[in-house]
């Protein structure tokens, strides 16, 4: 089932291989459920994942949209839930962390984290590379390990090779490439499945899913939203992508969210 889903996403991305202009998404209606990636979508990238901040007023905007959609607004991120909570406090939205390995639903608080022993050797070797390339960030997320080279572009080849060399020993893991990062993620976990899991429960069940994200990992979310008759919204111009709509960058996402919040107020 997992393999079939991955193949479908791959086919979908390849079918969209010709770059094309995507229109901005329409405004949300009350039947929508909104799924938001975080880094590169709500947050601009920084040289380190811990050096980011939400723009002024963004929490209030998200809170207003969440109220209007009866709570059907969720964060779907590669970050662990505890980091999401720190970034969005005091707002505590339903969320899928670690690409869908951790969940917090509105009515079913539930966090699951897998065993991380298998990553020990890789973590140690990655630390040795940091000594040679101080800009590398080895982000230990428990069961996931993300290797970032945004501040050390010369280390990309070495980090990719390291991850690929260790993958065969990491039973049950897959590589998740991203923007200046490669991550080892337990197989069977992706943002599409995260969307499906959240959509199975109130207040998401029965709504039209709208997934907004920027990176390769978000293609799974796009495919899940489209398969459920929803909308897929790419942030940026990355190609190929199976998204049907696009917003230019995180500031365009916030502008679109503010327009939604204003409209919600006008039609309350
Ligand atoms: Mg992202």
Count of all domains: 2
Unreliable spans are 107-115
CATH level-two architecture of the largest domain: 3-Layer(aba) Sandwich
Structural class: alpha/beta
Q: Count the strands?
A: 12
Largest sheet: 8 strands, mixed
Report the C-alpha radius of gyration, rounded. Answer: 18 Å
Which fold name is given in CATH as the topology of the largest domain?
A: Rossmann fold
Order of helix and strand elements from N to C terminus: HEHEHEEEHEEHEEHEHEEH
CATH superfamily of the largest domain: HAD superfamily/HAD-like
Distance between the termini: 42 Å
Q: What is the CATH domain class of the largest domain?
A: Alpha Beta
Which molecules other than protein and nucleic acid are bound?
magnesium ion
Beta-strand fraction estimate: 15-25%
